[in-house]
Specification:
It contains 12 helices and 2 strands. With 256 residues, the chain is an all-alpha fold. It has 2 domains: 141 residues, no CATH class; 103 residues, no CATH class. α11 packs antiparallel against α12. The longest helix has 21 residues.
Length: 256
């Protein structure tokens, strides 16, 4: 039955089996039967339909649409949107920092979607990602309205997170250099965590991902005015001073 429903797409069978086995072998038969019964009506009708239907079944089941509080579903969709918009590989800890959640909460929410999201066992391992590119396309353009995300949601969440991290973590002598007359250390200081590195390098990309930045213009101005030299010091340590200049020119065009 699964073979017929998947219409020759191995990715569908793989994701359905991962989802069914997610809560252990004892629960797998019942969960698998539920998926098959739910998918029986037209899972194989059309090229994208098998994948889309499978994604819908998994998301509806794991997110508990209609059963959980709206804030819980919103938090899950923000996590997924952030993963899709991230500009470098993230860890559970880094994503938690950027979205303002506890890392255990991030792990718990995303682990329920293990059929479509890879969650590394180590919170510090930078390999957190969605498993299939088609999943992102589905979420943005073809998912039911209750679980669809806008293309700018991840950029908005991550930009707010970047600005918050920069405001809280940037500080005087962040490189721990003994003197401002000496070159920055050749190695990244331990005070520059991955969430701060990401924020300093990529905040402007998320500015570019928004059609309207007016709600954050004041925050961007305040942070750059107060923390500009500290941000520039981090960019220097990372060997990205030239990139910093280009980022400022782009940001000025976007927020002015």
């Amino acid at each position: 039955m699964l073979s017929r429903l998947c219409d020759g797409l191995f990715i569908v069978a793989e994701a359905m089996l991962k989802h069914a086995l997610g809560e252990g072998s004892d629960a797998a038969p019942g969960r698998f039967k539920t998926l098959l019964n739910s998918a029986r009506d037209g899972l194989s009708s059309g090229t994208a339909a098998p994948l889309d239907s499978m994604y819908t079944l998994i998301l509806m089941d794991t997110s508990g649409v209609g059963q959980v509080h709206a804030d819980e579903l919103k938090a899950l969709l923000q996590l997924l949107a952030s993963l899709l918009s991230a500009q470098m590989a993230l860890s559970v800890t880094t994503l938690a920092d950027l979205v303002g959640m506890d890392k255990d909460e991030v792990r718990a929410r995303l682990s329920r979607l293990h059929a479509v999201v890879h969650v590394p066992e180590d919170d510090e391992e930078t390999s957190l990602h969605t498993l299939h590119a088609s999943f992102g396309d589905y979420l943005v353009s073809r998912a039911p309205s209750s679980i669809r995300i806008s293309g700018s949601l991840g950029h908005e969440v991550l930009l707010r997170g970047c600005l918050h991290v920069m405001m809280k973590r940037l500080h005087f002598k962040i490189s721990r250099s003994r003197s401002s007359y000496l070159p920055s250390p050749a190695t990244k200081a331990v005070t520059i965590e991955l969430s701060l590195e990401y924020s300093c390098l990529h905040w402007v990309h998320h500015v570019g991902g928004l059609s309207d930045t007016s709600a954050l213009d004041d925050d961007i101005y305040i942070i750059l005015r107060a923390q500009f030299l500290f941000w520039l010091e981090v960019m220097s340590i990372l060997g990205k001073v030239r990139r910093a200049a280009a980022m400022l020119v782009f940001a000025a065009r976007m927020v002015c």
